[in-house]
Amino acid sequence: MRPDAPTAPLNIFVVLPKVELHRHLEGSLRLDTMLDISRAHGLTVPASIMRLSNLVQVHDEEPYTFANFLEKFKTLRLFYRSPDVIHRVTREAIEDAARDNVRYMELRFTPVALSRAERFPLHDVMDWVCTSTEKAAREFGITVKLIASVNRHESPELAEQVAWLAADHIQRGIVGLDLAGNEADFSALPFAPIFREAKESGLHITVHAGEWGGAENVREAVERLGAERIGHGVRVMEDASVVALARERGTVFEVCITSNYQSGVVPALSDHPLPRMLQAGLNVTINTDDPSVSRILLSEEFQLASEDLGIPIGTLKERVLAAVRAAFVPKDEQEKLIKLFEKELEL
Question: Catalytic site residue 183?
Fold first, then answer.
């Protein structure tokens, strides 16, 4: 939570039923859980929450840069030491979302990152995350689907393994494939055939683009990788022709306001292009990205959009419904969700 955030107005946004389309499991770990894991597995990390926080969370006194933001994940990758750890962090991520009145969530996870510390088989990692998600969703009364994520800086061969395993787990709740990572230095094009095949196999496609790279990366994701949704995508506003393409295609943007500021994509919160994206007729949704890394709740992102960016509450409710319509679920399930949210949002 932002230290200067007023508490009373936030209640409006906590009560608001919400949808999260862009939340990374690896960016959702609780600090006390990390300390428990480090003690149980003998990890060399600071023994105090405050010192550990400096390694895995972004603080106000730090440089808000791409490099600093990604640095947090080097420490986070140390913690995936057992099936029990993966079960725990998955359950807690879902519990935290439910407590914030998130009713529907697509939680993305990176099987390679979860497997690497102990060289777990990718298939086992997917099974553990699917099992934990199924149990936690029932326990906390939230609908959760999963998106398997691969990174641009890793090999297409590894991404292909993940894609085929994800397709094999569609019946277990994996609904999509995501391309993430450093778009400034690594092209998405080597992954295009893999993503086209994944789409043919029944997986939906979302791609991180237009965050640390320019608008042309958004075009590439839509036209070459078949992206239905774009992770972040805020730099689309740099090219009117790409804005027109996204508007024509109905491409959905998974915008993460605080993350875009902390990673240096926008120089100030007040400069965030979300209002201009809406004015341009783009289909925008509001998300957290990495709630633990950024020390935020989805409720706070909605509050920020309202109070700092001047977006009316009515428009924010429409964006929640837009996120429901963009959910990677079958048509009949989506229609039920739409009716539920229309009633609760009074739209």
Answer: no
Q: How many CA atoms lie within 13 A of 245 on its CB side?
A: 22
Look at residue 2 and tell me whether its pLDDT is greater than 60. Answer: no
Quick one: pLDDT band at residue 246, thresholds 50, 70, 90? very high
Question: How far apart are alpha carbons 45 and 34 in whole angstroms?
Answer: 9
pLDDT in tens, 41-63: 998 888 788 899 999 999 999 99
Name the average pLDDT for the chain.
95
Asked if residue 8 has pLDDT above 70, the reply is no
Domain ranges, ordered by start, for the chain: 10-345
CATH superfamily of 10-345: Metal-dependent hydrolases (3.20.20.140)
Residues 204 and 278: their CA atoms lie apart, in Å, by 24
pLDDT beyond 90 at 245: yes
Q: For residues 56 and 31, is the Cβ–Cβ distance under 8 A?
A: yes
| Catalytic-role residue among 26, 183, 211, 228 | 211
